[in-house]
Amino acid sequence: MEWCIIDNYMNNKSNWLGPVAIGGVGGSGTRVIAEILIQLGFYLGKDMNPARDNLWFTLLFKRPDWFFKKVTRKESHIMKGLSIFEKAMTAHGKPHSEELSFIMRAVVEMMFKGHDYSGSGRGLWPIRRAVTMLHSKKINRLKYLGWGWKEPNTHIYLEYLNNHFHRLKYIHLMRHGIDMAYSRNQSQLYNWGRMFGIAVNDSSIPLPRLSLQYWNEANRKAITLGRKHLKERFLVINFDKLCTDPRHEIELLIHFLGLDTRCVNMDELERLPRLPESAGRYRKYDLSIFGKEEIEAVRELGFIVDI
């Protein structure tokens, strides 16, 4: 593939673009954007699951107990984790003893805290992630246009990521909030709900309403932080629009990445987004369980709600 880079800022700094990160509330369609970036020639990691999650990022950062416990020195711990992650992804040196201890603590927490991170965190899973990370090899940059990763929980760390990666570009996916409220994928609600004061164990509140509260708050925070800190390096993609009008949304993405659409096989990329059968499922449910302000927030974030 012959790549045409039109982003002069990125191109003058390096002939390898990135990092480009992809995140969103779980189930928002981040996998499709990862597939598009891979088609474009971005390296997203060597240890990924079928959903294209970067499992090194998962091991290091999908750790709510660790995140909320590190109150006094939280930023220094997170920045250390990001340094480890960057070394593994770009193969710029091996971790030193203190960084090895950081990785081992992540492994132990995943193994013994008893959490179920949607298929991660139990058995040999954390050990396998650590082994692949510690044996990461230098990337042949001639094979790739740039690098990045996809992991839905990335949005939790936006402010820290911006402080560490000064050239970071971040893509935030959003899918219809009320559809998401009825999804089986509620791991982010349970992992991070306390960040927004959401009482995830309150049995008096229906789970879909708790889920929508999280969706509203998490997306609002991501957008606020992205616009404040990343500015033009922050992009929101509406998954529903991506599926119904893929050319327009993919063109926005291509431009955001600093590429020229004339050098991209748009027909091939347009075939990647597919509107799932669950789209619009919220219409089957009684929406009276939601507050008016919660539904209005979904509209304010760009989605139509039929009542």
Description:
By secondary structure, this protein is an alpha/beta fold. It has one domain: Rossmann fold (3-Layer(aba) Sandwich). It has 15 helices and five strands. The protein has a five-stranded parallel β-sheet with strand order 2-3-1-4-5, sandwiched between helices. 39% of the residues are buried. Mean pLDDT is 90; it is low at 8-13.
Q: Which fold does the CATH topology refer to?
A: Rossmann fold
CATH class: Alpha Beta
* Number of contiguous helices: 15
Indicate the percent of residues in helices: 40-55%
Biggest pleated-sheet summary: 5 strands, parallel
Strand content: 5-15%
* Rg calculated over all Cα atoms: 19 Å
Strand order of the largest sheet: 2-3-1-4-5
Overall number of structural domains: 1
CATH architectural category: 3-Layer(aba) Sandwich
Distance between the termini: 47 Å
Which residue ranges are poorly predicted, with pLDDT under 50 across at least 5 consecutive positions?
A: 8-13
